[in-house]
Amino acid sequence: MIVKAFAVTEKSGSLEPFEYELRSLGPQDVDIAVAHCGICHSDLSMLENAWGMTQYPLVPGHEVTGTVSAIGDYVSHVSVGDRVGLGWHAGYCMSCAQCLDGRHNMCRDSSSTIVGRHGGFADTVRARGASVIKLPHTIDIREAGPLFCGGVTVFNPLEQFDVSPTATVGVIGIGGLGHMALQFVRAWGCRVTAFTSRGSKQQDAMQMGAHDTIDSRDSDAIAAVAGKFDLLLSTVNVNLDWNAYLNTLRPRGRMHLLGVLTEPLVLSMLPMLAGQLSVSASPVGSPATITRMLEFAASHDIGPVTEHFPMSRVNDAMEHLRSGKARYRIVLDRD
Questions:
Q1: Which region, left, alpha or beta, applies to residue 133 given φ > 0 means left and ψ of -120 to 50 means alpha?
Q2: Which residues sit opposite 299 in a β-bridge?
Q3: Contact between 87 and 131 (Cβ < 8 Å)
Q4: pLDDT at 115
Q5: Which among 111, 109, 113 has a CA at the least distance from the CA of 59?
Q6: How many alpha carbons lie under 13 Å from residue 249 in its C-beta half-sphere?
Q7: For residue 200, what pLDDT band results from cuts at 50, 70 and 90?
Q8: Parallel, antiparallel, or unpaired for β 133-134 and 63-71?
Q9: Omega before 57 within 30 of 0, i.e. cis
Q10: For the residues of 250-318, what is the DSSP string, one character each?
Q11: Which of 149, 158, 214, 259 is most buried by its number of CB atoms within 10 A?
Q12: Is-contact 10 48, C-beta < 8 A?
C-alpha cells in the first residue's frame, strides 16, 4: 500500500510531498484513513530535532482523527468505518509490568507515532490496535485531534493525583495545552487561576474557564498569592522563576510540569522541605485514560479552540505555530 504524505528530509526543512509503502497489515494493526491531524509543538520540536532523536525523512503528526480503513485479525475493539483517534503512542509491548498495570504510557518499549515511524501528515497512518481509540459519537471529528495529545496530557494529572474538586489550581501558560487545562480543571470542579504573560489572553482565559487571571510577568502579583494553590500545572516549555511559583503553593502542594523543558530546573530546597512540596511531571496517558478523558470531554462539552488549514498548506500552518500566532491549536484537514 502506497501512502501519500508530507515529510521533512533535513533539520528545520520544509515539508514536501512524500510517498512510502506500508507492508502487509499485521494481526494487531489498524490502518486509519486520516481526515484531520492536529499540529502539536512536539511536531515542531521533532521537525527541528530539538530533542536529538529525529530520524529523517520525518512525517510528523500525532493528533490524528479519521476512520478505520483496515484491521488485523486480532483487533476486535474497532471496526472498519469507525471514527477513531491516535495520539503520541502507536503501540505498546503489552507484557511489561507497566502495561499489565494499565499504565501503558509508561511502557519503556512503546512506539511513538512520529519517532522512528511516519505519522499523520498523510492520507493513512498505521498503529497497533491498543493505541487506536474510538471517538464518542458526540465529539466533532474535526476538532478532536488535539485531545489525543494535549487534552490527555492536562487531564492525566487530575486522575493521577486524585485532585479534589475543591482544590485551588493554577495553570501556567495559556496556549495549546493551557487553554484545554482551564476547561478540564473548571469542569473538574476546581477553582482555577490562569497565569499568562499576554494581556490579550486574559479575557480568553476567563471565557475558557478561569475564575481569575494573573500577569505572569508581574512578580508582585505572583508574590501576592503566596500559599494559595493546591496544584500548579505548568504548560510552558521555557524556564521560569520556579521558586516564585513554589511560594504560591499551600503546604503539601504540588507543581506539576507538562511542557517539555530541555534545561535543568533551579529549585530552592528549604522551602520545599518546610512545606513538604512536590515537583513532578508526566507524559500523555494510557489508552484507558484517553478513553475516560474523551468521555469527560463529551459530557462537559470540552474541546480545543482551533484554527484549520488544508494539509496542502502544511508549511504555512507550521510557520503559524512557529511564530506563536496559533489560537490555540492548529488542525490540518485532508484536501
A1: beta
A2: none
A3: yes
A4: 98
A5: 113
A6: 25
A7: confident
A8: unpaired
A9: yes
A10: EEEEEEEE-S---S-----HHHHHHHT-EEEE-----HHHHHHHHHHHHHHT----EEEEEGGGHHHHH
A11: 149
A12: no
Q: Cα separation of 262 and 258, whole Å?
A: 12
Written as nine digits, the cell of 206 is: 476567563
pLDDT tens-place string over residues 97-148: 999 999 999 999 999 999 999 999 999 999 999 999 999 999 999 999 999 9
58 phi, psi to nearest 5 deg? -115, 125
pTM value is 0.97
Domains and CATH numbers, the chain: 2-149+284-333 (3.90.180.10), 151-281 (3.40.50.720)
3-state percent helix, strand, coil for the chain, nearest multiple of 5: 30, 30, 45
pLDDT attached to residue 298: 98
The predicted pLDDT at position 258 comes to 98
223 secondary structure, DSSP code = H
pLDDT at 220 over 90: yes
pLDDT band at 20 (very low <50, low <70, confident <90, very high): very high
**What distance in Å separates the CA atoms of residue 63 and residue 331, rounded to the nearest whole number?**
9
Q: What is the pLDDT of residues 35-49, one digit of tens each?
A: 999 999 999 999 999
pLDDT of res. 199: 84
Closest CA to 152 of 262, 332, 287: 287
Q: Where do we find the cell 520556579?
A: 242
The distance of Cα 140 from the centroid of its chain, to the nearest Å, equals 18
Q: Provide the pLDDT confidence category of residue 334 given band limits of 50, 70 and 90.
A: very high
Would you call 125 helix, strand, or coil by DSSP? strand
Cell representation of residue 186: 473548571
The CA distance from 47 to 30, in Å, is 25
pLDDT exceeds 90 at position 33:
yes
Cell of 255: 507543581
From CA 58, how far away is CA 37, in angstroms rounded? 15
